[in-house]
Amino acid sequence: MRKILLFVLLALGLSAFANAQKKVTPTIKKGDMLFNAATSIGLGGGLSYGVSADYVLLDNLTGGVDALTAGAYVDYNEGFAAGVKSDFHYQFINKLDTYAGLRLGYIFGTSKEVGNDLVKMNVETKGAFAYGLHVGGRYFFTPKFAAFSELGFRGAGFVRLGISYKF
User: Fold this and answer.
1) Higher pLDDT, 117 or 68
2) How many Cβ atoms sit within 10 Å of the Cβ of residue 109?
3) In the chain, where does DSSP find H-type helix?
4) Which residue has the higher pLDDT, 124 or 55?
5) What residues contact 136, with CB distance under 8 A and at least 6 apart?
6) Bridge partners, 39 (sequence order)
7) Residue 7 C-alpha from the chain's centroid
8) Quick check: 156 pLDDT over 60?
9) If DSSP codes are grouped into helix, strand and coil, which group holds residue 74?
10) Interacting residues of 58 by C-beta distance below 8 A, sequence separation 6+
11) What is the CA radius of gyration of the chain?
């Protein structure tokens, strides 16, 4: 995980250096709203599905093409998780929004039936506090439509792929 994160940060840094002379046009700005739908693959191989919404609270924080978003999410994987999230966005390349953020929420209890026709068992888990960190990138194919990918640690799945629509 550490090697993958280091590789992503190195690639982002090199792309920023290579594109330092180009004027970058912001893909998101204060007041924009993003609606996201995604599928995640966990470390154990299980799939989860989720939706989230992000509101751009601030932009141009450091004098560059950056923004701060806050939002909410709901995920499903044999049970529901819901919470809040926040991301810091920095754009190095036109149409590519890169970001890092965190998620805080609650995983509600789940109930799953396992076994076969002869022996069936109901496995229940209790709810728990959830948190997660992630880094990602969102590429805008049009001014309103984008695809994104995230690498996450806890609570966000290991690899998350999805689409975004900007209002």
Assistant:
1) 68
2) 11
3) 2-18
4) 55
5) 98, 99, 100, 148, 149, 150, 151, 160
6) 49, 161
7) 18
8) no
9) strand
10) 30, 67, 68
11) 18
